[in-house]
Write a structure and sequence with these properties.
By secondary structure, this protein is α+β, with helices and mostly antiparallel strands. 34% of the residues lie in helices and 20% in strands. It has one domain: 434 Repressor (Amino-terminal Domain) (Orthogonal Bundle), CATH 1.10.260. Strands 1, 2, 3, 4 and 5 form a five-stranded antiparallel beta sheet that branches. The chain is elongated.
Amino acid sequence: MTCPACNATLVVECSLRHERSLGDKLFSARLRARRCKVCGLTAPDVFDLGAFELAVARVIAHSGEASPNELRFLRGAIGYDRVDAARALLCSPDDVSAWEAGHSPIPAFTLQALRDLVLLRTAGVAWFPIQVQRARNADPLSQPPDPLQRDSGTVERRPRHRRPHLTLRTNTR
């Protein structure tokens, strides 16, 4: 394996703490990653990153409540655009836009249908132990951090034979 930034072949396996902030919640987990010894670039494993996003969607779906940003995230996590979501939820794309923008509340039965759809689409995916906590100085429009991060000294090595955890665990404060 070579580094995508500098094409060096001195790449080692490690783990990376990945965080995703949605509204006032901060989701975090350790993902498998590869770090370049030459330039310090650390990149998470693509499979683990996708499984993390689906695990976050599943935690939000189980919570029973969803902010406009979380609604947008849920829709995107299962690969739906506004038109697909409107078809699945038996409403118009304008309704989906209004819910995601926070202009109108989502009806309870529609939220339940979206939750069921997310849980159905994410069934059978390998899960990570995810920690959920209140984000400090939460910005409702915050974006996830860049998954390609430079080495900041927070990388810990993990033995190659160890597989990621396959259970879902949430810790809320």
